[in-house]
């Protein structure tokens, strides 16, 4: 899909996510909702080594 933003054009290829045929649904505070769970668990980006003001830490 070709998009244009502030005079700059670029191509966008959306990611296709597999879902299951099961449908979860319910009511929360009077509003009806539906959800189709992912077929495969989403992968995180792993652990990140980060630094804030000279302090090193690991973030999930």
Report on the structure:
Pfam families: DUF4278. This is DUF4278 domain-containing protein. InterPro entries: DUF4278. The mean pLDDT is 83. This protein has 60 residues and is mainly β. The protein contains no helices and six strands. A hairpin with a 2-residue loop joins strand 5 (48-52) and strand 6. The chain has one domain. It has strands spanning 2-5, 8-11, 24-28, 31-35, 48-52, 55-59.
Contiguous runs where pLDDT drops below 50 for at least 5 residues: none
Q: State the share of residues found in helices, binned by percent.
A: under 10%
Task: Going across the biggest sheet, name each strand in turn.
Answer: 1-2
The SSE string, one letter per element, is EEEEEE
Main beta sheet strand tally, sense and closure: 2 strands, antiparallel
Helix segment count? 0
The tally of strands reads: 6
Compute the average pLDDT. 83
Task: Compute the number of structural domains.
Answer: 1
SS-based class = mainly beta
Distance between the termini: 32 Å
**Rg calculated over all Cα atoms:** 20 Å
Pfam families: DUF4278
Protein name: DUF4278 domain-containing protein
InterPro entries: DUF4278 (IPR025458)
